[in-house]
Amino acid sequence: MPKRVDPTERRALIVDAYLRIVARGGVAAATSRAIAEEAGIAAGALWHHFDGLDDVVRAAFERVYGESDARIRAAVDGHRGLAAVHAMIGEIVPHDAQTRNEATVVVSFWGLLPAHESFRELTRRVEREWGAGLARHLDEAVSDGDLVAATPVQALADALLAVCDALQLREVQASDSGKTRRRTELIERLLAAWAVGR
Length: 198
Hints:
The protein is mostly helical. It is 70% helix and 0% strand. The chain has 8 helices and no strands. Helix 3 runs parallel beside helix 6, helix 6 packs across helix 7 (153-173) and helix 7 runs antiparallel to helix 8 (180-192). The longest helix has 27 residues, at 117-143. It starts with 6 loop residues before the first helix and ends in a 6-residue tail after the last helix.
C-alpha cells in the first residue's frame, strides 16, 4: 500500500521549501519545479495541495505573518507604552536573516494584491490587528505621561505602520535608508514630535 500523506504536513513541507528558495535566490527562483525539487516531491504533487503558485505564496505570507505575530506578542509581554511600541516595531522591521527573508516574501505577496481581493483582505486584517496594537500602546504612553495628551494616537499608529511597510520594501531594495541607524532615526522623529517636554 502506498504511504498515506498527511495533507497538513505536506502543505507545510511545500511552504518550507518555498521560503528556503526565496531566502537563497529571491522570489524569481521559486518556480513550481524548484519548489517541488526542494521539497523532494513530484512537480504534479504540488497541485494536490495548492491551487497554484499564488496559493503557495499566500500560505507563505500567512506563515510569515503568524510567526511575526508570535514574536511580537513575546517581545511585548511585560511591556507597555513606548517600550511596547518599540518592541512591536523591532519585530516588524527587518533586522536579521529571518526578518530580511520574511520581508522578501511579504513584498512579493504585495505584488499579487491587485489581482486578488482575498489577498487584499488578508493584508488589511494584518494592518488592523497590528495598527490596533500600536494604537493601544501609544494610548498607554499618553497615560504614562511620555506622550502629550493631544497625540493623534490613531494617525500616529497608522504612520508608524506605514513606515514599517516602507522599511520592509527598502530592505528588499537594499536601500541605504533601510539601514539600522537611519530607520531608527525615522521612527524616533515620528515619536519625538509628540513627546512630553520636547
